[in-house]
Amino acid sequence: MKHISSIFECDFRKFEAELETLAKIKKYDEYTYLHSLNVARLSVQLGRRLGLVGDQIVDLGWSALLHDIGKLHVPLDVLNKMKKFSAEELAIMQSHPVEALSAFAENQPITLERLRRLSAAFEHHQRYDLKGYPVVHKKLTLHPYSRIVSIADTFDAMTTDRIYQRRVLPDVALKIMSQGFGSIFDPIVLQAFITCLGVFPVGSLVRLSDDRLAFVAKYHERSHLDRPILYLFTESKALIDLASSDARDLKILHSEFPEDHDLNANEIMAEAQIALERAS
Amino acid sequence: MSVKKTFENLIPQVDGDTPVTLDLSKGELRKPEGTQPFVLDAWPILLFMRGVGFERIVFQPGALEVIELWAERIQRYENEFIEDPENFARDEYHWNEKSIDSDQLLIECLLGHTRSERIQINTASSVPPMDAPLGISSEATQSFLDEIRRQSPQEIFQRVLSILVEYERDARLKDEVQWAKLVGDIIAVALHSHLLDKAQRIINEHRTHLEPLWTDADRVLRLLSAYDPKPSELQDWAQIFDGCKTETLLGFLETHLSSTAGPQILKLMNYRAQREPDHLLPHIRSQPVNVQKLLMQWLAPQWRPKHLIFLEGALGLLINNNSDQELFKVWIHAMLRASPKEAFESLSEHFKSPKWFWKKKELNPAFQHALLMVLSEDQSIEVLDFLKSIRKNVSTDLTHQVDKIIDSYRKGRS
């Protein structure tokens, strides 16, 4: 519950069935559970920026937390397979959106509110143009929450390490996702997602035009999307606001993996946070 | 962006006699004569390749002949990756490209060397904040919010109906029992939401596989308690329960009349009594007395001459095993409604001693009394004739009752 409380507030007494389902996910597959938390965090953040409030945030949050519950019915050897799926395995894996409803209904009765929150579980792989899966009998517009969750889901999946494959750097992930404007993703929601995160999301390690490395520390409402506040973590341990006139000649070239430089990103970002608080 | 467009700038670079290397991580194009920067963002599929871990791509002389074929394949991979990055197994895909005419590798894609393949499972705290400008118009935002507010129960059910269709299509997925219960739950939600038409549609589309639902008493009761139909809706609502056996409902009459499903149980049974009275006949006698009375009350308008034999037989068994006068009355009423003339003939036997001593029949005084009570409510010529015909056969206790009824009739006539 404390994980969820850090994402959004709700009266957990009304969501006992959902909590129970989430606990099952955690027990069944740790990656799916952590992924669901991340997707919820991203979805709720975006939802708030779009103006969702109160119960809308709660509904969106639970939609995101439960979007992969259908995976409870996918065998673990398929779920964690490192190689390309066979046709049969792919069919099993792609059945998880359809399985979502029965997975949730196994131990508790369905209500209208729960059906609303399960829309994302069914729709998050359907694509904005409905050419994804599962193929639906009758075409309709995806639920707004599904459109948010599918973007958050894709971004988190791309930017998470797997045992057999390294993650994609966040800025690269956003650029790759932008190829799906209007086809895979809702263009308005994707645009908001990409710009809210900034070209180089906070926490990215970037190479500057003067060859120094820095971490992206912060964007503010008036930032240009490629001119954030950076934290120089080497000797100076200083902040640089690329939007300021002092830094107008400085550019970000590209991002890099912190671990390739033996850098502990979490520790350095904690330093950056302290520096930001001192500066404000 | 089309594949051809993507490579318009690249093709002249690789169209030569020497290999060309694209360094994806540094954004450099390297040829023997020198290195020049290139903007990776201008080439989406190269960006994608960098994203999934490739560091360099080497184009050998002659790569031009296969570059479009290669690029189209990479673009397909990119689409697959965007659609489902979680299940994209990079190492299982075919990245290099050989010559059409030989085994010579013309395009070679090289992975980067990571310092270590440490797994860094992202925790919730590693999700980046979204503090940068929103980047969309206020109109677009408002439109999105309005769409959320407009989401109605009907639209939710439309989505659910799609799920059910897909679920039913994939027989491999389906646990028949679980699926039937799931459908039952969804129907209950539709009824709770006053979406009778949606509930009907779900039943009609999935009726043939719902048998396990009707053996789940809790779910049936939930369905019954979900919606109280108006008179005009009764037929449509009752058809939802066509798969529910009468025995089940009869059991509920005994056990759940005081529950929230009670009123609906009564409505449904009454509906069935009016629509299919003959289906109830085999069940009546086995029911407890209170349920019997209820059923007979509902069936009252339905009795026809064809039912007389059944009623006689049932009454005969009842008389031998019972002394409940109120119960006798409902059966007597039924016989008289079914076929009055034949009923009187049959009923008169209950006041005659047997002709032959070996056909000794017990005359049931309680039944006789009940019959006379019924007849006293109906002052018709037929009743008067009946009473006169049995007067000589009744026992002393009942003579007074018979006379009283006859007198009352005469007074009424005068």
Description:
The complex is a heterodimer of chains A (280) and B (414). Chain A is α+β, with helices and mostly antiparallel strands. Chain A is globular. The longest helix of chain A has 21 residues, at 30-50. In chain A, helix 2 (16-28) crosses helix 3. Chain A is built from 13 helices and 5 strands. In chain A, strands 4-3-2-1-5 form a 5-stranded antiparallel beta sheet. Chain A has helices at residues 2-5, 16-28, 30-50, 54-65, 76-79, 87-93, 96-105, 112-117, 119-123, 144-158, 170-177, 187-197, 265-279, and strands at 205-208, 213-218, 229-232, 238-241, 252-256. Chain B is an alpha+beta fold and 414 residues long. Helix content of chain B is 57%, strand content 7%. Chain B contains 21 helices and 6 strands. A 6-stranded antiparallel beta sheet of chain B has the order 3-2-1-4-6-5. The radius of gyration of chain B is 42 Å and the shape is rod-shaped. Chain B starts with a helix and ends with a helix. Chains A and B meet through helix 3, helix 7, helix 8, helix 9 and helix 10 of A and helix 3, helix 4, helix 5, helix 6 and helix 7 of B.
Q: Describe the global form of chain A.
A: globular
If strands are numbered along the chain, what order do they take across the biggest sheet of chain B? 3-2-1-4-6-5
Oligomer: heterodimer
Beta-strand percentage of chain B?
Answer: 5-15%
Largest beta sheet of chain A, briefly? 5 strands, antiparallel
Shape of chain B: rod-shaped
Radius of gyration of chain B: 42 Å
**Biggest protein-protein contact in the assembly:** A-B, 107 and 86 residues
Radius of gyration of chain A: 20 Å
